[in-house]
Specification:
Elements: E1 23-26, H1 27-36, H2 40-43, H3 48-60, H4 67-74, E2 81-83, E3 86-89, H5 96-109, E4 116-118, H6 120-123, H7 134-148, E5 150-154, H8 167-179, E6 182-186, H9 189-201, H10 205-211
Parallel strand pairs: 3-4, 3-5, 5-6
Antiparallel strand pairs: 1-2, 1-4
Helix pairs in contact: 7-8
Amino acid sequence: MSSAIAFDDEPAALEKPNTTTPLALKLTYFHHFVELHGGRGAFDGLTTAQVCFKFVVPFTEPSGLSLVEHVRQRTADAAYVAPANWYISHAWQYLFLETLDSLDTFFETNDIADPVVWFCVFNNNQHEAANYPFSWWQSTFRDSLAAIGSVVMVLHPWKSPITLTRSWCVFEVYIAILAGATFDVAMATNQEEWLLDDILDNMDAFFDMLGGVSSEKAQATVASDKTS
């Protein structure tokens, strides 16, 4: 599988990964975080990127830590922090609430109670993110995913999912394959219904979507990430 991100030698993408399972936040905290900042109405129409800079960065400003570490060290909500058992692959351009609803649907459908999810916006220190080199991001995503071993990719719109056009998400698929991680997809209820309707009309619809994926054309927010 080729990728728009240029890796070192193929085995090096998973060379000596740190297998310590990282801490993360329970999915129930995501809902708690929404309520702490005005409820769903305050988040309506906001992308995950906007939520990061409007809510996550100001909330963690006093400590200068990631949200995970801020909650663990500086709040009364430390019980929401635990070793991660799911790694979330998503796009920052997605609406935050749609991503959250997709994850809720996935875990409820699969009867998975109280999942602890590694979510880059919450796990990475957003006060220092701009200063990290590409190699730091590559090893952080690689090690976290390999240690957790279970990936959920948020897919929408299902016919042309943004995650499969993003370089880092393509990289996460690549690492999941090398690590032998389980790989699942999550969709909001309306996307699942749309997918089922389209498959009823055309049994090859899902495979047609996958066939249209081009890793060479995958985009990155930071242009240099495509060639680092």
